[in-house]
Structures are given as structure tokens and as C-alpha cells.
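Budget justification aside, the reviewers requested a transparent look at the raw inputs and outputs of the sequence design task funded under Objective 1. We therefore reproduce one unedited record. The lines immediately below are the C-alpha cells for a 231-residue chain.
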């Protein structure tokens, strides 16, 4: 379920937006000032903010920078300002939409849902390119792995193993499956002993004293458990 923060000081308008969003099966939280919004954002993550430009304790244009830089939260401007210069300024600040008041609530709901759908697609695409787990950050496009902010030196085989584990996380991967997908597809033959050795070397590079990433499933194979705390 998507989560939306409505930052609007007009109580009736705020309530109307929240009511209509809830009808669309969207979880909502209301804020009537920037102070409210900051307090709420410190307590949890949201997928989107509806942001009024004029608020009692500041303006939405300034707060938009904070949303991007500090909270990494996409936002839609809600405002009575419809001058072309202000609309362009809003988009330059990174807004996903700019909705002027008064508005048709049905149209607004469709526009909000369109933004949420687009954001989900972007998140899915980013997940295909990057993966963060425990102390690790993996960039699949650049084929780089970072551990606690430091670049790891992996052999091509170690990286291929790691990527295959990450993209099949939670699944039990047999030795045969790993051999087939990591080496046989390249036309190279490696025996089970080499596989075991490479997994051991990979573990030594990525694991922490308190974190485990690759679990041995005896008699079956291996499973990516992604930074699980060691008991």
C-alpha cells in the first residue's frame, strides 16, 4: 500500500484529500504545517508528499529542497499560484506534479495515482540496477560492490556469484544450478570444489563478524539471507 503525506493547512481541504486517497486504498497522514511534516517524516517513510506552497510556518518551495535532500521524498505541489513562472519554478525544484486550486478532486486523484504508479516503476528499475543489504551496496550496472563505504575487490567469478545470489535472494540454489548459471553459460567448466572455494572466498570478503549473507543448506546448496544477524 502506498503512503502519502498531505501537508496542507486548510483543514477542510486536507480532510477531503485524505478521505479520497483512503478510498483509493492509499495510506495517508495529515500535516498542517512544516513543523508537523518534519515530525512525521522523522517517524517513518512515505512514498509521496502533497505539499501546499503557502503554510503558516514557511513556504513549500523552500521545504521542497529539504524533502529532496534530507528525506528523498517525491512531492506534488498544491497551490493557488498558477503563474507560468511559479509553475516552471516548481518543476525546476523537482516536483512530480503541480496542481493549482481550485481543482476537480476526481482529476487530482487520477494525477496522484499516475505519479505513484510512475514512482513504483522507477523504484523497480532502480532495484534492478542497485541493491543495498546490510553493510553492502551493489551496483549491478557498474559491477561494483561497496562494504561500509569501501570498494571491495572481487574476482569476476566472485562478483558473478554475488549477483546471482542477490537476484535470487531467499531461494535455495543447488550447486548444479550455480555451476550452470555462473560458468556453463560462459562455456567454461568448473567443478564443485572450485565452486565451494569461490563461495568461501566471497564470504570472507563480504561477511562481518555479526552479519551473515550466504547460508549453507546441507545436502541441497546455498541460500542468500542478506545480512542476517549471527546468533
Amino acid at each position: 500500500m502506498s503512503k502519502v503525506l498531505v501537508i496542507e493547512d486548510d483543514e477542510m481541504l486536507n480532510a477531503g484529500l485524505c478521505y479520497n486517497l483512503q478510498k483509493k486504498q492509499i495510506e495517508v497522514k495529515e500535516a498542517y504545517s512544516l513543523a508537523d511534516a518534519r515530525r512525521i517524516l522523522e517517524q517513518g517513510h512515505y512514498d509521496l508528499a502533497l505539499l501546499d506552497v503557502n503554510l503558516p510556518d514557511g513556504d513549500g518551495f523552500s521545504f521542497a529542497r529539504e524533502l529532496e535532500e534530507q528525506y528523498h521524498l517525491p512531492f506534488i505541489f498544491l497551490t493557488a499560484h498558477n503563474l507560468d513562472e511559479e509553475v516552471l519554478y516548481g518543476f525546476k525544484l523537482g516536483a512530480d506534479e503541480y496542481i493549482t486550486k481550485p481543482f476537480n478532486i476526481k482529476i487530482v486523484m487520477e494525477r496522484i495515482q499516475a505519479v505513484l504508479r510512475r514512482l513504483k516503476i522507477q523504484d523497480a528499475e532502480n532495484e534492478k540496477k542497485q541493491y543495498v543489504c546490510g553493510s553492502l551496496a551493489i551496483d549491478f550496472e557498474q559491477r561494483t560492490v561497496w562494504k561500509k563505504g569501501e570498494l571491495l575487490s572481487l574476482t569476476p567469478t566472485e562478483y558473478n556469484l554475488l549477483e546471482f545470489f542477490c537476484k535470487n535472494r531467499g531461494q535455495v540454489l543447488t550447486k548444479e544450478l550455480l555451476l550452470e548459471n555462473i560458468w556453463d553459460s560462459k562455456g567454461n567448466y568448473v567443478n564443485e570444489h572450485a565452486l565451494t572455494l569461490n563461495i568461501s572466498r566471497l564470504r570472507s570478503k563480504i561477511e562481518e563478524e555479526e552479519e551473515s549473507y550466504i547460508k549453507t543448506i546441507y545436502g541441497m546448496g546455498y541460500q542468500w539471507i542478506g545480512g542476517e544477524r549471527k546468533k
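The longest strand covers residues 221-229. Helices lie at 11-23, 34-41, 60-71, 84-92, 105-129, 156-167, 175-182, 192-206. Computational costs for records of this kind are itemized in the attached budget.
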